[in-house]
Amino acid sequence: MIYMLDTANLKDIARCVDLYPITGVTTNPSIVAKENRPLAAILKDIKNIIGDEIMLHAQVMGKDADTIVKEAYSLKEVVGSNFVVKIPATAEGIKAMKIISKKGDLRITATAILSPQQALMAAVAGAEFLAPYVNRLDNICADGVKVVSDIVTLLQKHNLKAKVLAASFKNVQQVHDVSMTGAQSVTVAPDVFEQLILHPLTDSGVAGFVRDWEGVYGKDTTVLDVL
After folding, report:
1. How much is the mean pLDDT over the chain?
2. Which of 37, 56, 102, 185 is the most exposed place for a label (fewest CB within 10 A)?
3. What pLDDT digit, counting tens, does each position of 81-106 carry?
4. Helices (H) and strands (E) in the chain, counts
5. Confidence band (pLDDT; 50, 70, 90) for 186?
6. How much is the pLDDT for 101?
7. Whether 76 is catalytic
8. What Gene Ontology cellular-component terms does the record carry (predicted)?
């Protein structure tokens, strides 16, 4: 599983990258707008935190393929290495993916995917990652996890190298269900991401270990203190 963090908040990024096996940070226009700062400054600040080993995904806003392509390469100039451009899976977006894919010098995430056929088209057009929106589908009484599962199946049946990057989660159960489909990656907001490893029995179990240990070896001692 490839874990990515869906935010542009610098404090959240710094904390989660320090603690967890984060492979990428994803942003979108709404996430960036929440920071209310110049886009280039936001992306550079994120890059300073995550370095060159972690992917940074940023999204275009153009409505036609030519503008999308220009935006994509402008974003790449700002971010530098390990940049992935996010392009919506619209007709003009697919055209832009074809153009960029032929150049072979810029990685693509197809975003705003709400159907398996959008994902399949984007994969054939050259997208490396496919980002279906799970919770948005659930909110209209569709089945977001089923859509992800269908995309995984299509990629396998057609022997395509693209990876599912499932997005739009509101709870841990959605992330778990998507993981069970065989989706290769997820991008999750910090509030949900940090809940992935929480369990009350883990907390009580660790508290019991501490109580028993300190009863013999003393308060706040570690293994290093008693070896």
Report:
1. 98
2. 102
3. 999 999 999 999 999 999 999 999 99
4. 12, 8
5. very high
6. 98
7. no
8. cytoplasm
Catalytic residue from among 44, 86, 102, 103: 86
- Going from N- to C-terminal start, the domains of the chain cover 2-196, 199-227
User: What separation in angstroms does the CA of 66 have from each of 96, 128, 132, 174?
Assistant: 7, 20, 24, 36
Mean pLDDT of 7-36: 98
Residue 213 has a pLDDT of 97
CA distance 137 to 185: 18
Contact between 154 and 147 (Cβ < 8 Å): no
Using only C-alpha atoms, what is the Rg of the chain? 20
User: CA 202, CA 52: separation in Å to the nearest integer?
Assistant: 34
State which fold the 2-196 domain adopts.
TIM Barrel (3.20.20)
